[in-house]
Amino acid sequence: MEFSRRKFVQTAATSVAAAGTLLSSTARAAVSKNKKVKVAVIGCGGRSNRDIPNFIKACDMLGLEAEYVAMADAFEDKAFEQADKYEVSRDKCIVGWDAYQKVAESDAEFVMLITPPSFRPQHLDTLVEAGKHVLMQKPVAVDAPGCRRVIAAGEKAKKKGLAILAGTQRRHTIGYMENAARIQNGAIGEILGGTVSWNGNVPWIWERQKGWNDADYLARNWLNWWQMSGDHLGEQHVHNIDVGNWYLGRTPQSAIGFGGRARRESGNNYDFFSLDLDYGDGVHIHSQCRQISGTYPRVGEFFRGTEGEVQGGGKLKGKNVSIPEFNVMDKDGNVQELITWIQSARSGNPINEARQIAESTATAIMGRYAAYTGKYVRFRDLMENTESEFYDLKATVQAEDFEKGTVVLPEENVVPVPGDGGEIRRRV
Fold this sequence. Notes:
By secondary structure, this protein is of the alpha/beta class.
């Protein structure tokens, strides 16, 4: 893979500018022309407790009024909970595995897609076809075909003039934006290597309840099944991996690594991963993540260059370089990304983050396959090489299975084991 600083600067600078620059007065007037912002939520679980109030705040800061036209979820209790909390009448609740289709048929202008990752490729595709501006939380898929479907939907969205937001708030956080610009302008020289990490606890586990079928249990306890979440390497650590791809201006060429499971009590995810991500030109990034209670918590990114070093969106040691001024309305990237989403959609200059998050998701999936199988896995094996065993490899449970009623629960607490069990050389 050939790589040049010129190409990096051109590509990454465009991304940074799109994410962080406030609109002109003319564009802001266009944003404010229609004060009502009709929005629907698909997926009323834990993440919606942050995204819904953040969207309301973003609208308030733009002088707009958020109007929730639908609260949609597979489960009635979840939809009703959020509807009641935000004073949305229950007749606007949409319940069922096909709720996303009904949202697509609604008059919502914006849709917040907060379903488990395994559903997102199908749901995004449907919403784009319906002409909706979409926020999709990360990661956006759990397998390579899903990543490619998201990219295709993103390209379709470009033709339709739709704004697609990825939920990677670091790209909309001022410290990260400024450091990305400094790196692009040579503040730390050429990046030689680094570390990206997310080490913490298991966020939550849903124990199976009486009356739940396999689909119910799998969907409610989705965080702990790789078929639903992409494992925590994808579901959580993708934030840090995305920063690596962003700062380096490219995806890694390959991955090798390992992981394992010893303490988890539910599902089939690993407890930890350790990966070597090879970006070419001698550049290697160590990716590490862990979900084990009582261990040292470390979340962040570090990169060393020929002229200095940088701590994610924090301290940078290197050369003084000039960067553009980034005008953000909120220092919280979770809010600013929504401001940017609304602004860009209403101004006719829509942001589109589908490809970048799909490629970062694919990077995580590549690493997961490397750890699960013990094999050397290339990025092109997921995205380009149709002869690869990973190219068409789909999760054993697909979004369509929930609508069809054909969900088969994977064996719980049974995880992939790398290697072929070959004979060990023994000494006697």
